[in-house]
């Protein structure tokens, strides 16, 4: 099966500053992927490289088996909604749809008009007069009506209120199912990722800290609480992601495929937020470093 996105040693430099370095990634098709990481991790740069807006400085990237932006056919495969959900303030909703039809050979006008009608957007309304949630929905409509195979969204709901976020994400999920889309969604809002994503990537300092199907990641990560212990004394298959200690107690987040039988530990489940924060945080001072393996 063709990967929806594959990067190998990918890097992007602006002058002397590297915005992305040595990024290696392999995302399978058919998922709604949550891309998360701290500011400056390289998420937006990676997404701009993936949609062909930037050329790489180092390494390589392919999207749906081709070079991003390498041909009109390749461009038609990818829809993109940028961080500020861009629309043209002086154009009406109807004029946005006309522009989309002229720029995209695979444009689905019926889909676009049906979404606009269902959202209650008046075709004559100018984008500059719409609310933030309405502009985001208009931008999503333009991306979906292009009929892409991959839809990339960079923090599309960051500035929206909770109700507008929920409506946007609900529309995204409905479209992903109806159109059988692969989606890559960058967000700082873990609750949003938990609501819509089935695949997770944590990117820190351009490096993939963990990647895999969300259900499997949560099933193979555990919180261990028990008497204070040196993490280096754990079995070799228990990879320590984070550790904290008091005088008497240790709390570890570990990754393992095997059952944990040590009766000294109380084993607890973790949330998606626990998982993300553990990989985003600086590793604790343990003898065993966190694993950086990418789950294929």
TrEMBL record:
The protein's name: ABC transporter ATP-binding protein
Keywords on record: ATP-binding, Nucleotide-binding, Transport
Top-rank taxon, per record: Bacteria
InterPro entries given in the database record: AAA+_ATPase, ABC_transporter-like_ATP-bd, ABC_Transporter_VariousFunc, P-loop_NTPase
Pfam hit, one: ABC_tran
PANTHER family linked: ABC TRANSPORTER ATP-BINDING PROTEIN ALBC-RELATED
Alphabetical list of SMART domains matching this protein: AAA
Ranges of residues in domain ABC transporter: 5-230
One Gene Ontology term of the molecular function aspect: ATP binding
